[in-house]
Amino acid sequence: MRPTIRTSLVPALTTLLLLITTTPSTARPPRFAWPLHPPHPVLTPFARPPTPYAAGHRGVDLGAPTGAPVLASADGVVGYAGQVATRGVVSVHHPGGLRTTYEPVTPTTRPGQRVHRGDRIATLEPGHEGCPSTCLHWGALHTSPKAPRTYLDPLALLTTAQVRLLPP
Q: Which is it for strands 98-103 and 42-44: parallel, antiparallel or unpaired?
């Protein structure tokens, strides 16, 4: 009798799962890190708008004291560092069409500057509406010539994205 796909794959998948979960030396660290030193409570979570022009919260608000260093969440190139309306903004372009933004800040970087994960890129300032105290608005946007711009939950960038198999 010929074994079914399900019964022949279960031992192989179980072995793969054991290798992934029991070999810490092969686990990759996340590519992205928190843009603030701890603690960094999430005051306002990401809320994807139902349509591109609808209301939503296109980032997360992280609580921190005025003057806190704002750090690059990943390696990239500063695309913008300056004022937008009444507050300072820094944007960093990362490989793969991802851009992160940080506001309200006083930039300590300049456009075109290469930054690495954890480098100081700005200083946190007060002035973000809707926060009960000083907070950093951290946003993430994916751009691609073949797809529409998509806002992402920046907290999802902090994961190692390990494979998890569910029982059959």
A: unpaired
